[in-house]
Structures are given as C-alpha cells and as structure tokens.
C-alpha cells in the first residue's frame, strides 16, 4: 500500500531552497545571508514571562481566539502603532505564527477555482497556501523600476481584476520594498472597484525605515474587505515561539476561528504569555533591534554599490535585493557563491515572478559577519568578471 | 543627530573604521572624521580601549572594587579628594555615588598583596577618608557592556523563508 498524494499536494513543488540547504550543510564555515529570522534573542522580559508561566503551570489550552488580555494588548498596540481599530473580542484571532493566520484566511475564503492574486516576488508560502486551499494563484509580478511596489498597472497586466482576492506583504520579503499611503491608495481603489478581498501581511511593519508603516486597512472602504496578518516573529525576535495574529471584520475572524478551533485549537499558551509581556514592556528592545537593522541595511547597500552590483534601495524588513551580474542566473550565482566562497544567499526566483535575476540578502546577522560575507561576494564577483 | 549616532557606534565598537561608520550612517567619511574629531576635542570621547577578559590570560590582573567613605571639612570638597585619588595609576575608575558610601573606586594590580598595600598605604592615609572596604573581583561576566561568556552559537538554519 502506498500513500497517494492529494492532487493539490502533488501540485506544489518542493521548496526552491532545499537544494541549497543541502550544499550548505556539507560545507564548514558558511556565512549565511539566507535566513529570514532575526539574529537577536527574544527580549529577556518576554522570555522571563514565558518561563514564569511554565513555572506556574499555565500549560492548558487558552480560548480558541487567544487569551483575552493578549487580544486586548494587541488591539491597543495596533491602534497605537498603526492606527488600526479592532475589537479584541470579535475582530482579533491569535494564531501559531502569522503563517497559520495566512493559511486560515486562505482556507476560510478561497473556494475551489477561486483566484488569488499574489504580488510577487513574495514570501514563499502564499502560492502553496492558495493551492492547498483549492484555489488558483495568480502571480502579479512587481518590478524594480516601480521600486517593487504593487501598482494598478501590474494588477491589470496580470488580470487581477477578475481575481477573488489579493495577497501582498509590505514591507516586503524578499525585496525590502515598502508601500506608502500614496502607493496604497490606487491599489485600494482597484480592490474596491473589482470587489477583491485583501490579505495584507504586515509582519514586517515595525521594520520600516525612514518613515511610518501604513496599513491598507486604514484606507477608506478597506477595513471591511481586508484581513491583516501580523505577529511577534520578526520585530520581537520570537520566530520559534510561533505566535501571530489576524485582524479583520468580525465575520471574517469568526470564519477563521471556526477552522482554527478544529485544527490548532489555540496558539501555544507559553508563547501567548511571552507575547503579552513583549507588548507590555519590550518596545525599547524592538527600537534597538530596528536601529541595528537600519545600520546594517545602510552598510550592506553601500557595499553592494561599491562592489558594482545594482541593488534596490530596500526601506523595510531585513532584506536587500541586489541584481546578479551579467552572465549568471540568480540560481547559478547563489550556488557558485556558496560552493566557492561559503556565503549562503537565496536566488530571487524562489520568490516567484519578478524575483528572477536577483538575490535575497538577509542582513539579520552581525556586522562582522556581514563585512566578511560582503568581502567574499566582492572577491567572487571580481573572480568571475569577464574581460572589459 | 549624526553626532549621537556616531557616538553610539563608537561605544558599540571603537574599532569600527571610519568607512564602516560612514556606510552605516549614510555620512561621508570626511563628515564622520569631523564628528569624531569634534567628539574628541570637546572631551566627549576621552579615549578608546580594549574590553579584556582577564580570566582568559595566564598572568591575569587582580582587580578590586573599593568603597570609600569620606568626611569633608570646610576647605575640602569631593572634587579635591577625587583629584588626589584619581592621580594614582592603580585607580582605573573613580565615581562619586549615592548610598552607603561616597566613592566607588576600581583598583587594578598584579597581585592581591599589591592591591592591598595600595589601599592601606596610599588610600587609607588620605586625611578625609574614614573607611575603606575592599571587594576583590573573583569573576567578571560582563565588562563595558560586553558579555564575557562564549556567546550563543548561531544555531539558525542556513536558509529560512
């Protein structure tokens, strides 16, 4: 007897970075710029709260939607930081990472055959998530000449007017692009005009440099058609604690909660205590980490320019997105760089259309490692430079 | 603002090159040089030194934290006492503090005997000093904001989404 995979599982190819991971495992002393998670530890106060909750035996399930006090804190936090107003009782659900929130939303609102437009390059899980939900992903490539922002032209070119929903992530993984209020307004108008649901992944919202993050849900007529995803993994350096949340109208969150209560039941209890403390007392830790990322961002951008690789001026998240020099595909560059110089980067193709010819460089690593990694990239580029 | 930013970077690592600091702050190298010069000339930055984990050396230094109580008269103030003490090369740090004692003094020497002799023969006889309490440093876990342990290994996977 063999297991016969469901068609929708078979339809999803293995992760594009798995092969690179295997090469990296064989090598010693790899400097990894391939990680999408902070190099900082979870702030001590949050860790202490998690430990204390365990010591006190607080290890039962919580309410399906998450602890009431945590939902209240989240409501206060998003109101204060991003001008988002949500009722903690009905319009917020706490999930096992923002990834679970994304999955819940796809399963709650995507019917077989529904089309979900995905602004690309994008986080690697949206497309498989749509397929697992029975839907059909519709890539909407964004382009460097538009600063990797999602534009109405891009939406129209991709045929998104006929889609049922739209998902995007700004600040963006992998490009580091952001969308200002002015950038979001035409997209919001497009969504209203074509009656699209909007899934806005704002997990990197705190990591916005040179300005404030704007949520599309704050634009007129958007709150009722938008589900916002956020969480504690990135800004609060809590990836392994797996805690995220979704914000949306009561009926939308209620629908997501219906799936959540039959599958996850509730997000990890220990992590919820850590998150409560993180919101309560770790704002300074967040600011310090953001300042560090910002300095590293400037450093990395400056070095790429010096090396002679065109690089997009990333203004959010902790990634930058340089172009590979002529003569290489992104995959070739990434593989040869890893083999020859022991520097791990992710080829942009992994993130879908619009990512080809680029590399995702994570600067969530210490400055001395970044300095060394950039020196090795420079040596690699010099070694492979063709005759003038 | 740039002054503060440069200062923070120097405090983080005084060996950051002008070039590195320029990259991290988006300043020109010449601007960084000017800011550092200003910080040095106005006495905001008083010097640069290594943060040492003496426990890793065979010929480790002996260090002590010494609490000092003083009694002042009309002609002498804290500054006068501090000035006299600070001149001793054995004194590595000296701070006027609030609480149960007046000065917190950090002393360094090659042996416990040397530090003890210094405190008893040079410090205790200062007329204003009424009491000294010496605490020898047994192990340092953090110096100058830097933890002296082996540090956490980066156990993140090489690739994550």
TrEMBL record, chain A:
Quaternary structure annotation from Swiss-Prot or TrEMBL: Homodimer.
InterPro entries, alphabetized: Aminotransferase_I/II_large, AspAT/PAT-like, NHTrfase_class1_PyrdxlP-BS, PyrdxlP-dep_Trfase, PyrdxlP-dep_Trfase_major, PyrdxlP-dep_Trfase_small
Enzyme Commission number(s) of this protein: 2.6.1.-
Family recorded in the similarity comment: Belongs to the class-I pyridoxal-phosphate-dependent aminotransferase family.
Pfam family, one: Aminotran_1_2
CDD domains: AAT_like (cd00609)
Protein name: Aminotransferase
Cofactors (names): pyridoxal 5'-phosphate
UniProt entry keywords in alphabetical sequence: Aminotransferase, Pyridoxal phosphate, Transferase
Any Gene Ontology biological process: amino acid metabolic process
Ranges for domain Aminotransferase class I/classII large: 29-377
PANTHER family in alphabetical order: ASPARTATE AMINOTRANSFERASE, ASPARTATE AMINOTRANSFERASE-RELATED
GO molecular function, one term: pyridoxal phosphate binding
Enzyme class: transferase
Record field: transmembrane: none
From TrEMBL, chain B:
UniProt entry tagged with the keyword ATP-binding: no
Domain HTH asnC-type positions: 1-79
Any GO CC annotation of this UniProt entry: cytosol
Highest rank taxon of the organism: Archaea
Molecular function (Gene Ontology), one example: sequence-specific DNA binding
Keyword Manganese recorded: no
SUPFAM superfamilies per record: Dimeric alpha+beta barrel, Winged helix' DNA-binding domain
Gene3D superfamilies associated with the record: 3.30.70.920, Winged helix-like DNA-binding domain superfamily/Winged helix DNA-binding domain (1.10.10.10)
Key words of the record: DNA-binding, Transcription, Transcription regulation
Gene Ontology BP term (one): response to amino acid
PANTHER family linked: LEUCINE-RESPONSIVE REGULATORY PROTEIN, TRANSCRIPTIONAL REGULATOR AZLB
Protein name: AsnC family transcriptional regulator
Organism whose genome encodes this protein: Natrarchaeobaculum aegyptiacum
Lineage: Archaea, Methanobacteriati, Methanobacteriota, Stenosarchaea group, Halobacteria
């Amino acid at each position: 007897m063999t297991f016969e995979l469901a068609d929708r599982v078979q339809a999803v190819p293995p992760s594009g970075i798995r092969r690179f991971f295997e090469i990296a495992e064989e090598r010693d002393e790899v400097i990894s710029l391939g990680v999408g998670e902070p190099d900082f530890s979870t702030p001590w106060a949050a860790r202490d709260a998690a430990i204390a909750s365990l010591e006190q035996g607080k290890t039962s399930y919580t309410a399906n939607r998450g602890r009431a006090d945590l939902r209240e804190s989240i409501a206060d936090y998003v109101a204060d930081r991003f001008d988002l107003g949500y009722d903690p009782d009905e319009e917020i659900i706490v999930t096992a990472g923002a990834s679970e929130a994304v999955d819940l939303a796809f399963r709650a609102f995507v019917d077989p055959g529904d089309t979900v437009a995905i602004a690309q390059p994008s986080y690697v899980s949206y497309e498989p998530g749509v397929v697992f939900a029975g839907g059909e992903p519709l890539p909407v490539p964004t382009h460097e000449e538009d600063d990797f922002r999602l534009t109405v032209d891009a939406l129209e070119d991709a045929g998104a007017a006929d889609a049922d929903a739209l998902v995007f992530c700004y600040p963006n993984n992998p490009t580091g692009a952001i969308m200002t209020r002015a950038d979001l307004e035409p997209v919001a108008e497009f969504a209203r005009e074509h009656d699209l649901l909007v899934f806005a992944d704002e997990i990197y919202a705190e990591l916005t440099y040179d300005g404030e993050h704007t949520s599309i849900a704050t634009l007129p007529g958007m709150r009722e058609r938008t589900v916002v995803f956020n969480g504690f993994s990135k800004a609060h350096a809590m990836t392994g604690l797996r805690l995220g949340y979704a914000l949306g109208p009561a009926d939308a969150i209620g629908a997501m909660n219906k799936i959540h209560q039959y599958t996850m039941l509730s997000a990890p209890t220990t992590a919820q205590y850590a998150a409560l403390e993180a919101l309560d007392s770790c704002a300074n830790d967040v600011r310090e980490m953001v300042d560090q990322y910002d300095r590293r961002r400037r450093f990395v951008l400056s070095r790429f320019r010096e090396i002679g690789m065109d690089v997009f001026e990333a203004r959010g998240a902790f990634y930058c997105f340089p172009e590979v020099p002529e003569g290489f595909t992104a995959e070739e560059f990434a593989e040869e760089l890893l083999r020859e110089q022991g520097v791990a980067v992710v080829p942009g193709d992994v993130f879908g259309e619009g990512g080809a010819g680029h590399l995702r460089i994570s600067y969530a690593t210490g400055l001395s490692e970044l300095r060394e990694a950039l020196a090795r990239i420079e040596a690699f580029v010099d070694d492979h430079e063709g005759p003038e | 603002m740039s002054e503060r930013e440069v200062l923070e970077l120097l405090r983080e690592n005084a060996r950051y090159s002008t070039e590195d600091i320029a990259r991290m702050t988006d300043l020109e190298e010449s601007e960084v040089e000017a800011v550092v010069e200003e910080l040095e000339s106005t006495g905001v930055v008083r010097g640069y030194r290594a943060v040492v984990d003496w426990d890793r050396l065979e010929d480790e230094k002996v260090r002590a934290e010494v609490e000092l109580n003083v009694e002042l008269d009309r002609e002498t103030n804290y500054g006068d006492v501090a000035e006299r003490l600070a001149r001793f090369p054995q004194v590595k740090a000296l701070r006027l503090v609030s609480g149960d004692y007046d000065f917190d003094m950090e002393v360094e020497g090659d042996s416990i005997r040397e530090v003890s002799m210094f405190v008893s023969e040079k410090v205790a006889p200062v007329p204003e000093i009424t009491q000294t309490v010496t605490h020898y440093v047994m192990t340092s876990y953090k110096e100058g904001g830097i933890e002296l342990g082996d540090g956490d290994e980066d156990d993140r996977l090489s690739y994550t989404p």
